[in-house]
Structure formats: C-alpha cells, structure tokens
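User: Um, what's this?
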Amino acid sequence: MPAPPRLCRCGNIVPAGEVCTCQREAIRARKRRADKNRPSSSQRGYTGGWRKLRAEFLRLHPFCKMCGNTAEHVDHIKPHRGDQALFWDWRNLQALCAHCHNSVKQRQERANVRT
C-alpha cells in the first residue's frame, strides 16, 4: 500500500515521495548560497594535471566499483579536504558511474559528516 500524501507547512497537500514547490525553492536557495562561498574547481585542485590523472585512472579502471556499470567519475574514497597528498594518492581513488557518484556516494558522505 502506498504511503499517504502529507501536508506541507505552507498548507499544500504533497504526494508521498515528492517535494513541495515551496521546499524545492528553499533547497535551490540554500544550494545557491553554498555555491557562492565554494572555491572554483581549479582552486580546489582540479586542474589539467587532475584531468590527465583522471583519464589514465578511468582507462585502467573502466567499471564502477559499486555497481559494475561503465565508470564516468574518479572519486576520492576519503575526502581530501585540501590535503594534496590525499588528493593525488591513487590508493584513495575509485572509479564510479554517474548514478553511484551522484547519489550513493553523496548520501554516504552526508551520513559521515553528521556522525
């Protein structure tokens, strides 16, 4: 049996599993504020050297470590947080498909930040 709809704070009835339009806008605003304070990709170390390393890593590891699909992303297993030794350490890298990188891995990282 599907979950029943819920009542949002704004008074709208929202189907189960969906996000109310007011919440969607609040999420977008929060992400815009976070992005404004975030350094650019090159400032975080993702330069031409990284692109070369990434291409070589994907050539050697063409499949997602989590699900086995074709890998598209090279992910840091342990977030480097600016640590250059950890950033360039091949033992700290894994190949992931877009789905696993953008959903499964992000969910894991958010859970680790909270604990």
Remarks:
- The longest strand covers residues 73-76.
